[in-house]
Amino acid sequence: EPGVLRHIEHSAGVLIQMERPSAGRGVGGVPLAISCKTEKGAFFVADLGDVVKKHLRFLKALPRVRPFYAVKCNGSKGVVRTLAELGAGFDCASKTEIALVQSIGVPSDKIIYTNPCKQISQIKYAASHGVQLMAFDNEVELGKVARSHPHARMVLCIATDNPRSSARLSVKFGATLKSCRRLLETAKEMNVEIVGISFHVGSGCIDLQAFTRSIADARLVFEMGAELGYKMHLLDIGGGFPGTENSKVRFEEIAATINSALDLYFPEGCGVEILAKPGRYYVASAFTLAVNVIDKQEVPLDPPGSDGRLSRWNDASSCGAEPPILYYVNDGIYGSFSCIFFDHTCPSPILHKKPGPEPPLFSSSLWGPSCDGQDRIADGLQLPDLQVGDWLTFENMGAYTIAASSSFNGYQQPQINYAMSRGSCHNQKKRIERACVLLSPVAGKSQIPCALPLSSLPLESREQHPS
């Protein structure tokens, strides 16, 4: 697609941080340029080249599936704009997310409002802004939609049985198979249009067969709908795809399982459009967080309880051992490290400065800047002696970090610095050229769509998110 080829370098160029030989460790060859920064605040480097690469990888692995990016995972504008340029759709869960993607020119037919439980005012907002594709899983929601958005095109969200996910969404959302017929009949009575079925196996899914079972269940509900006169034509297979290479299950393994199940239950040519809602898949590995040491405390090795202070710390420690050095950094669990609680991650620091050949290591722990005694990032670490101002970086920090942070104690979200190296940009252009050839109309398939020209959407070189 000429539009993509013409504007992909623009999407990187406006956001680019050029390589400097003197700069430090980088993301995908792009330096963090920590030593050059006069500001001492924590900050992100977002490698948009990684996002583009993930998109092309998705299209190759799941050729029948249209990706709708889950904005809730990371709503930073650079990511949203890049994916919009590449033709992705968007999975929105609220009025705010709908407004975000529409503010950069994404058309309403590329938005699905997937929250099954919506406030009436937000249903009306979706109606007034042309968003018709919406999810539901209960009769009350059907009634709200029938009154507030009668022209909505509804997708019935069904529950999945997957105890091997890190976040089981079906604990809260999804209709059981037993209740699906009643919901379809109720929708018929209310004159609400049902166009498809959706499911989500849960975040961090490691059970490949969960996708197979869910696709089979969706087929059963399609047949229920056909018996009631529905002509459903949409299957939403949700998310749950890994975003890093160290995951227990590789993305290509999941894709192969999905493709096999689709061929069995929804074969090509059956008239059903397939979409998915990847979130962490796109952004987890694209973001690196840099924090610096703002304080340290060398804890004496006196027996706990000698002055009362140590025993109190031991009581709060999950490991029960007293680390000799406590380091305080300028981001914590109320900020970007909220992923420790909400996303079950264990971030591991990388030391930016290069110590001597064999520096002594000390048992250490990392703590956030807030006044909460539970604001602990990591313990049981072996680190060289660090000083105030030293930098640490954390990789794979793109998923549910920025999106879940708060302004507790008045701390603001770290600045985002978008980056794409010249080499990465050149490689992505070549990949897109090859993809355009493979998906050309000659083969009977559509080209990669260019949703909107980035030349008309100047991107900031950095982005400060208000809390």
UniProtKB/TrEMBL annotation:
GO cellular component term, pick one: cytoplasm
UniProt entry keywords in alphabetical sequence: Polyamine biosynthesis, Pyridoxal phosphate
SUPFAM superfamilies per record: Alanine racemase C-terminal domain-like (SSF50621), PLP-binding barrel (SSF51419)
Biological process annotations from GO: putrescine biosynthetic process from arginine, via ornithine
Location of N6-(pyridoxal phosphate)lysine modifications: 72
Pfam families recorded: Orn_Arg_deC_N
Cofactor(s) for this UniProt protein: pyridoxal 5'-phosphate
Residues the record marks as active site: 371 (proton donor)
Record-linked CDD domains: PLPDE_III_ODC
GO molecular-function term, one example from the UniProt record: ornithine decarboxylase activity
Protein name, UniProt field: Antizyme inhibitor 2
Source species: Chelydra serpentina (Snapping turtle)
